Amino acid sequence: MEPIYRAEIVKFKGDERRIINDILVREIKLEILLNGKRFGALMATPSDLKALAVGYLLSENLISDPSGIRGIELAPDGLSVNVCGEINEKRLNSFDAEKVIISGCGRSSTANIDPEAMAARKVRSDAKFHKNEILNLMSEFYTQCELYEMTGCVHTAKLFTASGEYFIGEDIAQHNTIDKSVGKAVLAGHDTQGSLLLVSGRLSSEMVAKAVMSGVSALVSRTAPTSLGVVIARKFDLTLCGFARGENLNVYSGEERILS
Length: 260
Hints:
InterPro entries: Cytidine_deaminase-like (IPR016193), FdhD (IPR003786). Keywords: Cytoplasm, Molybdenum cofactor biosynthesis. Strands 11-10-12-13-14-15 form a 6-stranded mixed β-sheet, sandwiched between helices. Strands 4-3-6-5 form a 4-stranded mixed β-sheet, with helices on one face. It contains 8 helices and 16 strands. By secondary structure, it is α/β, with parallel strands linked by helices. Strand 13, helix 8 and strand 14 form a beta-alpha-beta unit. The protein has a domain at about 130-255: Cytidine Deaminase, domain 2, CATH 3.40.140. About 30% of the residues lie in helices and about 35% in strands.
């Protein structure tokens, strides 16, 4: 299934009226199965769906370690993905009681504000990032982002690993972009510890929590964090930066990792 959809629309430019074929981003409901049993669904863009499922399950601590994944199968229609492996049953059993509707796109659920699991993954990396390097990467943020260039209708995340590789996630839901970029890195055999994550949207609590659960050392956006996002970043020693534009960078947590 293509991640784009073509539709005939009317376009006005001044007094000129034209009928054109426009490119829209496609939106689907992706069913996630754990060992063949339906777990839930995500509203998503149909690209990198295996990576999305893996990243989501890891960030929610439903799978505690990538080595526990035995197989991933995407349905022929592209509307469901089955992940087989060692499931954190305690986490799974508590999910219905704890999950909330998050502030991302669609009616997505999460229970990832899990103090116990996050404490175990508290950021302890001694990685350093130069301020100018971050700003340069942010100035080139939308390069190589094919869906954004075609539609202008998706959020984007770029994960830069300590080994120098980077992985892009694009989706209608900004929290899905983190899951996709992390999932792609994990499936490619890369360690996400000590990595730098750039995102296009706000730094809300669930975005910060996903970064902590993924082993990211620094999370950076062109926009602002929420108050709870800052509280979580400070509690778990994540470097959190916002308003990364031009020569400006606001550091809300973990300034010791930022070199000037």
